[in-house]
From TrEMBL:
Region of interest (Disordered), ranges: 1-43
Pfam families in the cross-refs: Aip3p_Bud6_N (PF23153)
Name assigned to this protein: Aip3p/Bud6 N-terminal domain-containing protein
Domain spans labelled Aip3p/Bud6 N-terminal: 44-151
Compositional bias of kind Low complexity: 7-21
Amino acid sequence: MYSGYESSPTATPSRSSSTSTHSHHSSSGWNGYRGSPTQGDVPTAVHTLLASTKKLQAILEEWSVGRADETEVSDVYVQIGTEFNTIITAFAYHQIDLSDIHSVPHEMRDVLERCLAEEPAPETLAQFMPELKAILIKLLRGLHTRQETWQARTSIPSNRSSPRNSR
């Protein structure tokens, strides 16, 4: 059976990351997932992760104009990591492998570290946002390609869904 997301990219992006960029022993890491109230709830997990990716883009906009700091960006990144693990676990519950997107958190961290190492400015964000958006698109496409499989595995034929009984 699929064992879920094994890697532990626990370093959070920061301007002082040159000394701790590759630490894998942080207590705020990716393996903090403890399970959701409804294990295997793919729609909720996907919705929550997508909301957090939008939050990341918004906090980066705020950072670029000096209204947010690196810690706030890092906090959203850690939140995305936790939600990413929730996604992996939810799909694994239905025996759906997502190994092709396991690199997304690492790729995202790399871009964020490089971005936050620069001075906050709209130009800085404009330089790194295309790469970040490409990573987010990779994530979205990876999830979208599993949608049909998930729906097929979770659909239960029911008379309630027929047009005659919907009145």
